[in-house]
Recover the amino acids of this structure.
């Protein structure tokens, strides 16, 4: 049976070929299945996967408009040598393709649209049941976030005692997890949520492994880990909004060595035909983000003022995925103020990096956004929407550090001669001295990042060496835009 | 002529012997003059100094009650072999003697009285003329500060364009400074101000060299530097409230090598009979505070959360003499908020260190407290008075870091089993989990460090593993005192 889902598919959409095949034995490990998708002289090799009940699927995210052809590969005669074609058409509105590293330190969609990362964190939101998960999606719809960090596996941790709705594996006769038999319903559910995020314009930063576990999924052997990674990639890589995060706090899984992480990175790198963004998140010790399979540095640190050092160290985008969370729980990482959360986004941005949000307010039913999603209670999201709005008005190639324009060594980013953005955080200068390029006129604006206002500088038009009066309050930014 | 100023002197007061001697030639370099002061079998060797007009002085700060005898030493017959005695009596109220390092990481007066350092900074206050200097003293009288950082030499820098009233040297016939001829009036003036600080209970952290100079005092040769240090020590060491700071931002004087600083440290160490506290202050690079002539680490850094690391590195008291200043000037180091200034004191304290204040608000006549003194405009001093009041109620041997009592790794200091103090800074936990020693009852108090209030915890009496409700606001501290 050749049951491809559509004859046409939009660019960076998903073409899916569905075939029937064997159900006997263990198809997850005994049946190899893949397809070669070709566009002109270019071939993409994509693994297929078994979806239970004799159903085999293989997916393609076409990246070029025109006719695509395919042929399946399998050691199983029923699944081998199936050919066909589909037509890739122009993307629909809002579909800009997958994200890529752009200009060394930044990101852009495949169609060139700039992307200013404003992420949030809901580790286990897809394991909370439909009602709460739908609530999370409703919240995200009007939230400022364009990326979400989320775990594939369920989570066991403080405030996370509930069982997930689904489990990723079947149990064997003895009641133990059989890591050779995936539970397709579990992964179909994850896929559905990833697709809904995509439709909201939100990147899914998928955390493949994590230490917060009481089921044993954090302690699989190397063969099982690799099998799991291949299965996830085969299922999810065709979703254009997928990022791969190898782990959350990888260094809290000391039973896995750096060599294990290197190997698993390569499994993902080699299996994913679309080269989605790849990273790994630390607790204390950084993984060496300079390694070639790492596309960007995913960092947990509270001292975001180090952003520029990390850029220089790794020569890649710096994403501080965890700078601590707005909230009021008794943990140091979970009770910063909204003001501080917003400040960390700005401090990171004016050093050429990107930051991430999370929220941990105590709740009588332990419904904390950081893990379970639901609704937001904090005051930072509104300011992060304003932050994103301001940053999206900046240089298309990203905000790059610029020295020497804002006296005296205030952090400043922008595009030389055209655009400067600086931020003073907890500092409250009443005056700022500028060394603007001579002969170019700039419009100066004071941005109150907390009260979300933009007002003209006095004087408004600035050039050369000039001083600007500032309000003498914290949380102010200064923007200078060339008058054209 | 034997003109000792008094027959009795209080413990840690100043005995001064005044002699007349030669005026010809250059007495500053040609006449050696010193005295041996003896108490029982103990001898203190103190350099004397030429005070101009044929007057030679030598001073002693006796540290034991009873009869002291002296004999002068000089190559000049007029000044040699003069003997005499005086009686050292009990100190007057408020005289606790000089400060010493106590319990490795802390300070105490010589009589054992604990000292919680709350310093401020007025680099050039003694070079502003009597009117403003008297105003500074009046301000200090009701301010919370018990130490002040101040330069011996005048200062040239932003906001510091005025000439000093006095100069430390005479000029030669060519109009150049003669570094072999001190101006006694200059040093008499400095001494007077140091004495006035002493009478206010304020330690004078005397900065011996600094780079902010347009006169050449920062660029003397080694012989002149050493001569200067010996002269200052001979004049000022008998003041019990003196600390020696070898330099401010020593690393901004690259024409002096580390070997130069080592040598000058030893000059001060060997010349000062009373072993006053000795330190050196950095801009970017730390001097190696582990060297034996350094009594405590004097640090310029804004990331005061590193305090405990520096304690462990140097095994000495950590004094963050410059954590930036409350103010609104366009420099990063001079425009933090009052809230941030106060926060840095608390963050340092709950890691077992000490912090320093400064204030830099723009002023139409450039009268910034940080350099010139005058009056205070900021909101931090009132909170630092409260801070000092709270800290002075703590353990007499100093606040030592204690792990494991405040879950989860909040910084905590105190005395095990008796006293715990923790602080949450910009964090706003609504709940704190404690692991108090079983079987001991503690009274819990919530300290609002900004609003300067102390209120009882709910519950007030705490023991063992227990959770305490907190206000969920930033700038809160929690104090736990054993009920006796």
């Amino acid at each position: 049976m050749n049951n491809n889902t559509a004859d046409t598919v939009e660019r960076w959409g998903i073409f899916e070929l569905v075939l029937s095949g064997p159900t006997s034995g263990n198809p997850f490990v005994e049946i190899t299945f893949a397809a070669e998708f070709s566009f002109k002289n270019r071939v993409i090799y994509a693994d297929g996967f078994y979806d239970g009940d004799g159903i085999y699927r293989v997916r393609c995210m076409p990246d070029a408009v025109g006719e695509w052809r395919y042929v399946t590969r399998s050691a199983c005669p029923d699944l081998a040598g199936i050919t066909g074609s589909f037509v890739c058409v122009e993307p629909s509105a809002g579909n800009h393709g997958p994200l890529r590293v752009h200009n060394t330190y930044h990101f852009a969609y495949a169609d060139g649209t700039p992307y200013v990362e404003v992420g949030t964190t809901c580790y286990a939101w897809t394991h909370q049941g439909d009602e709460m998960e739908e609530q999370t999606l409703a919240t995200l719809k009007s939230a400022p976030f364009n990326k979400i960090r989320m775990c594939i596996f369920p989570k066991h941790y403080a405030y996370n005692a509930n069982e997930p709705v689904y489990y990723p594996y079947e149990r064997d006769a003895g009641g133990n997890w059989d890591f050779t038999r995936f539970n397709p319903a579990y992964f179909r559910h994850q896929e559905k949520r990833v697709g809904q995020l995509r439709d909201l314009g939100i990147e899914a930063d998928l955390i493949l492994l994590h230490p917060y576990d009481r089921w044993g999924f954090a302690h699989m052997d190397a063969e099982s880990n690799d099998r799991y990674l291949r299965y996830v990639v085969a299922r999810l890589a065709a979703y254009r909004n997928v990022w791969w995060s190898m782990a959350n706090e990888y260094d809290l899984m000391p039973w896995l060595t750096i060599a294990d992480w290197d190997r698993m990175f390569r499994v993902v790198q080699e299996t994913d035909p679309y080269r989605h963004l790849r990273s790994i998140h630390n607790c204390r010790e950084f993984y060496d983000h300079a390694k070639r399979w790492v596309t960007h540095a995913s960092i947990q640190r509270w001292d975001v003022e180090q952003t520029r050092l990390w850029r220089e160290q790794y020569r890649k985008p710096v994403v501080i995925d965890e700078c601590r969370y707005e909230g009021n729980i008794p943990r140091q990482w979970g009770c910063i103020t909204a003001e501080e959360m917003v400040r960390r986004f700005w401090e990171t941005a004016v050093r050429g990096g990107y930051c991430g949000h999370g929220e941990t307010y105590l709740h009588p039913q332990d419904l904390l956004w950081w893990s379970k999603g639901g609704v937001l209670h904090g005051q930072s999201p509104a300011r992060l929407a304003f932050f994103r709005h301001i940053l999206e008005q900046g240089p298309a190639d990203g905000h790059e550090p610029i020295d020497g324009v804002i006296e005296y060594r205030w952090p400043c980013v922008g595009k030389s001669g055209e655009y400067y953005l600086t931020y003073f955080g907890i500092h409250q200068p009443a005056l700022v001295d500028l060394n603007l390029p001579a002969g170019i006129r700039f419009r100066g604006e004071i941005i109150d990042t907390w009260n979300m206002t933009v007002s003209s500088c006095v004087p408004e038009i600035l050039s050369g060496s000039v001083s600007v009066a500032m309000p003498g309050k914290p949380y102010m930014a200064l923007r200078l835009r060339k008058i054209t």
About this structure: The two ends of chain A are 62 Å apart (CA to CA). Chain A touches chain B through 29 residues (CB under 8 Å).
